[in-house]
Amino acid sequence: MRAVWYERTGPARSVLQFGERPLPEPGPGEVRVKLMASGVNPADTYRRAGTNWANEFPLIIPNSDGAGIVEKLGAEVDPGLLGQRVWLYNAQRGRPFGTAAEFTCVPTDYIHSLPDQIGFEVGACLGIPCMTAHRCLFADGPVQGLRVLVSGGGGAVGNYAVQLARWGGAAWIGATASGGWKTEDSLAASADAVFDYRAADCIPRIMATSGGIDRIIEVDVAGNAAIWSEVIALNGSVVGYASRGGPTPAIPVSAVLMRKNVNLRGVVLNSAPAGARRQAMEDITTWLRGGDRLHRVAASFPLAETAAAHEAVEAGTKRGTVVTLPQQ
């Protein structure tokens, strides 16, 4: 099969190789998927670059997310899966061979049926972004009737979080964004209000509009601590999936976490409880079938141009998820 791989970490064009690799064989409980699209997420670029990760294996095919068709079954796998359209995640998490290839093998727990009306490129956007959004929203219980604030509502995770909060019955959904298309996409995803997190009046505007937030989905725990610590309501939850403002921020433990009985939770998808990840896949697929949803494919690249795809993610200006197309 054609694939992209690296044997050392570093810049995309320096370390990514393109060529032929052996066709993988599914083990017990696994399926082989003919990949029609591969999603490129920031975490995939961090791993390839060596940011906070050493090489986990001698040779790595990058990218965790993808979508395609189940074309071979391992032992002890339901025969009904053969030929199914599926979306998948975690292909390269604790495993060497991800989705930057024409085929990949994953456990059946890592796949879910892809509704017929959903294209493969969209399917490749669902893994890390949409499942992270789901985990952040529902890790502390339902959002029915709650006031939810999504930090970075125009980003890939944030945009899905706004939509899933609406699906989950939130009473009010706000988002923060920096204006332009990020504000437009937050509103298109169904946010009731969008706030410029850089504005001096951001905090009073959030409080005047919402009265306080029950659950905050936070893209930058450190960088936005001054905001979330002020707007979080009694007994609320702040759930963060990134902290680009700093890995060891000063947290107002006594004044906010203790006095307000606030839960501060971190989320990394691949180490979240297996049952929560399975529920996320079930719920997301149900949500997909429920009507028109907003998906943003930022750019599509042929498999041979995976280095360019990684660079497009690293540029920090993408609108949605970058994908590669292994079968082109």
List the helices and strands and how they pair.
Blueprint: E1 2-5, H1 12-15, E2 17-20, E3 30-40, H2 42-49, E4 65-73, E5 85-88, E6 103-107, E7 111-113, H3 120-123, H4 126-138, E8 147-151, H5 156-167, E9 172-177, H6 180-188, E10 193-196, H7 202-210, E11 213-218, H8 225-231, E12 232-240, H9 253-258, E13 263-266, H10 274-289, E14 297-302, H11 306-314, E15 321-325
Parallel strand pairs: 8-9, 8-11, 9-10, 11-12, 12-13, 14-15
Antiparallel strand pairs: 1-2, 3-4, 3-6, 3-15, 4-5, 5-7
Helix pairs in contact: 4-5, 4-10
Description:
The structure is a single chain. This protein has 328 residues and is of the alpha/beta class. It has two domains: 2-125 and 295-325, Quinone Oxidoreductase, Chain A, domain 1, CATH 3.90.180.10; 129-270, Rossmann fold, CATH 3.40.50. The strands form three sheets. Strands 3, 4, 5, 6, 7, 14 and 15 form a seven-stranded mixed beta sheet that branches. A six-stranded parallel beta sheet has the order 10-9-8-11-12-13, sandwiched between helices. The mean pLDDT is 97. Helix 11 links the parallel strand 14 (297-302) and strand 15 (321-325). It has helices at residues 12-15, 42-49, 120-123, 126-138, 156-167, 180-188, 202-210, 225-231, 253-258, 274-289, 306-314, and strands at 2-5, 17-20, 30-40, 65-73, 85-88, 103-107, 111-113, 147-151, 172-177, 193-196, 213-218, 232-240, 263-266, 297-302, 321-325.
* Percent strand: 25-35%
* String of helices and strands: EHEEHEEEEHHEHEHEHEHEHEHEHE
Structural class: alpha/beta
CATH class of the largest domain: Alpha Beta
Shape: globular
Q: What is the number of beta strands? A: 15
Spans of at least 5 consecutive residues whose pLDDT stays below 50 are none
| Average predicted local confidence, pLDDT | 97
At the third CATH level, what is the topology name of the largest domain? Quinone Oxidoreductase, Chain A, domain 1
